[in-house]
């Protein structure tokens, strides 16, 4: 009997502190109107100095585990998608595993930047579909505020902190992951990057980068490639599975920029009314955006068993792709 991997629990957590556009007006040469017009962002959350990525991840995870109706000891695997780990090693997933008391679970981090949750979700599903595991916890969690240059008005307006989580569980029902596409183009690595304090000079030179360990990006180039990459990925899945845009109940795009999200929705034919959106309140939380947006939609608009849902993301690397699933909760 074939196994399917369906989402059985969702969780979300964002720090209490808000960094509004009015706050940023006092920090850099910008304005609320300029930010909202170009990005759709009105505020973002900033982690307390005592909060690490693992702390945010555990808060989101506990909600997801509770909704799934399981105990932490029943988890077989924990995957944390993050590009802002608490430590170089051990992985943030190990800290989460220990904090949750998930004694049986294996644990590892996955760094695919803004496509992190998408790729972690697809990876988790493989472990379940093969029959190796029964319950896998997938978390997208970031503390991006710690790698933002608050003197760079082109990037500091975009990023915030947060975490979203999902429990994937084995089922024999016809629900869960249906199909996916994942892509990469490492020749464009220099268009969005963040060095570490130990980045070799030769590596930075190869991508045309500078050594300052904060986020750098070519916004115009990213916009074009993000729209094309996400749109083409979604359209590929629809065509491959004999579906039309009208069949999609919910599109959950990476929350990078409202104009990017709107352009993707228009290209694939899904109206904005069926596109998950939490960018105004949280900004770009990288690997956390898809689970945060899904969590918000589920608790405000709702989803019915059998609804078709599409995740799509684009990230530094470049990395991009999409996943098609049939809702099972």
Summary tags:
11 helices, 2 domains, Peroxisomal Thiolase, Chain A, domain 1, alpha/beta, single chain, 329 residues
Topology:
Layout: E1 4-13, E2 17-20, H1 21-25, H2 32-39, E3 43-46, H3 53-68, E4 77-81, H4 92-100, E5 106-110, H5 116-129, E6 135-143, H6 153-156, E7 161-171, E8 176-184, E9 192-193, H7 201-207, E10 216-217, H8 219-240, E11 248-253, H9 258-268, H10 279-282, H11 289-300, E12 308-315, E13 319-326
Parallel strand pairs: 4-5, 4-6, 11-12
Antiparallel strand pairs: 1-7, 2-3, 6-7, 8-13, 9-10, 12-13
Give a brief rundown of this model.
This protein is an alpha/beta fold and 329 residues long.
Provide the CATH topology of the largest domain.
Peroxisomal Thiolase, Chain A, domain 1
What profile does the largest beta sheet have? 5 strands, mixed
Helix coverage percent of residues? 25-40%
**What is the element string, with H for helices and E for strands?**
EEHHEHEHEHEHEEEHEHEHHHEE
Provide the spatial order of strands within the biggest beta sheet.
1-7-6-4-5
Please tally the helical runs, counting DSSP H or I stretches of 4 or more residues: 11
The chain-level structural class is alpha/beta
Number of strands: 13
Query: What is the correct CATH architecture of the largest domain?
Result: 3-Layer(aba) Sandwich
For the terminal residues, how far apart are their CA atoms? 21 Å
% residues in beta strands = 25-35%
Radius of gyration: 19 Å
How many domains, as an integer? Answer: 2
Supply the CATH superfamily name of the largest domain: Thiolase/Chalcone synthase
Q: In the CATH hierarchy, what is the class of the largest domain?
A: Alpha Beta
Average pLDDT reading:
97
The residue ranges in which pLDDT falls below 50 over 5 or more consecutive positions are: none
Shape: globular
